[in-house]
Specification:
With 389 residues, the protein is mainly β. The chain is built from four helices and 22 strands. The longest helix is centred in the N-terminal third of the chain and has 20 residues, at 75-94.
Length: 389
């Protein structure tokens, strides 16, 4: 039965691909050097690395060679990725029109870039903000490996703080990929609290360290829309940031009392948390660091269930993660995957607070359910209470 099924789906060509003629030799000599696919928008796409996380060879590692063997079944991950892109594009189209403000339009950046942007009047009535980013190889006709940037670096989009233009507000976070092009759309609507009106604002995009610049053709846009939510964010009050994860971590994050504005119709806890470093037990990149925030006695907890699973990030392909990278992309990590947006942690705490009064908040971190030990890596965190009306 399987053979009958696949005879209708496979076309096997005898002979050398580069000698087939037509456009195929050009593709095989360029983006399709490893292999190529045609996605659902009828675009030619290169296939990534087919290294299988389950096919590790200690012998190859001892010989200082790449220790994971290829498996053609991994080509299915690219197909999953193309399907996920098509589903996402359909959802964007179904959501209705948006005002798109393009910051970068394909310029090859190396480390960071910043610019002043004139925001349109639509910003004042938008209830939804999405960040759309494409990071492409600088040479569009060459394979991704050795062409696209090589490392899984933290990437941030900042906007100036309207209350203090010398300060930056981190409104979105991403992780770059190992040698593959990426395309993300991330909803950060609560960050509209920092973008209230039209006019000139300053933005900064950074994604690589000064000592290891990564030339990348960059497309970055802000998408403002009104989806009839009936309210929009208008104010955000800062809570805690991260730091070194160890025995003194909780003491460095004191309890807070936050005043709830009288006009607030909705109050949300908003945090972006990722773990980095590989010190004690490969923590905090490869350990399950948990974060518990209590708002007026109600506890909210953030955990990382794929940590310790060798294919943890393979499970994230339908959630914006770019598969078949040329590196150890598969492993489940503490709050992130290479080649994926970092999804904000959002909790609606409206029912737990009282407008016009103060709310007590506390924050504690754990590693595998216990207080963190010294040398447990670092936590990169920003957090706010966001108010809408």
């Amino acid at each position: 039965e399987e053979a009958t099924h696949w005879r209708a789906h496979l076309h096997v060509v005898k002979g050398s691909g580069p000698k087939l003629g037509g456009w195929i030799p050009d593709v095989l000599a360029g983006i399709g050097q490893i292999g190529f696919a045609i996605d659902r928008s009828q675009t030619l796409r290169g296939i990534g690395s087919l290294a299988d996380v389950s096919k590790f060879s200690q012998k190859l590692q001892n010989e200082n060679k790449w220790p994971w063997s290829a498996n053609i079944a991994y080509a299915a991950h690219d197909a999953r990725h193309f399907n996920a892109e098509a589903v996402r594009e359909a959802a964007v189209a179904a959501a209705g029109p948006a005002t798109v403000v393009a910051l970068w339009k394909g310029e090859v950046l190396e480390q960071f870039a910043e610019m002043d942007v004139e925001l349109p009047e639509d910003v004042a009535t938008a209830d939804t903000l999405e960040i759309e980013i494409e990071m492409r190889c600088p040479n569009p006709n060459a394979p991704e490996a050795g062409n696209c940037s090589a490392w899984d670096y933290l990437a941030y989009l900042f906007v100036d703080d309207p209350a203090d233009p010398a300060q930056r507000i981190q409104i979105a976070r991403f992780i770059t990929s190992y040698h593959r092009e990426t395309h993300w759309i991330l909803d950060v609507s609560p960050m509209l609290a920092f973008i209230q009106a039209s006019g000139k604002r300053h933005f900064r995009w950074e994604y690589a360290p000064e000592w290891n610049k990564q030339p990348t053709a960059t497309y970055l846009s802000l998408r403002f829309s009104n989806r009839g939510k009936g309210m929009r964010p208008y104010l955000a009050k800062p809570l805690w940031t991260g730091g070194g994860l160890g025995t003194g971590y909780d003491a460095a994050h004191a309890d807070l009392s936050v005043g709830i504005p009288e006009g607030a119709k909705r109050t949300e806890l908003y945090a972006v948390i990722t773990g980095h470093g590989a010190e004690t037990s490969q923590c905090a990149e490869f350990c399950d660091h948990q974060h518990e925030i209590t708002v007026a006695g109600a506890a909210y907890r953030r955990e990382h269930g794929t940590v310790g699973q060798q294919d943890g990030c393979v499970q994230e392909i339908e959630n914006g993660m770019t598969p078949n990278q040329w590196g150890t992309w598969w492993f489940g990590r503490g709050g992130w995957c290479p080649g994926q947006q970092v999804a904000p942690w959002i909790e609606d705490v409206t029912a737990k607070v009282t407008p016009g009064a103060s709310a007590a908040l506390s924050y504690h971190a754990f590693v595998n359910g216990a207080p963190p030990k010294d040398g447990s890596g670092n936590i990169d965190m920003v957090s706010w209470l966001v108010f809408s009306k």
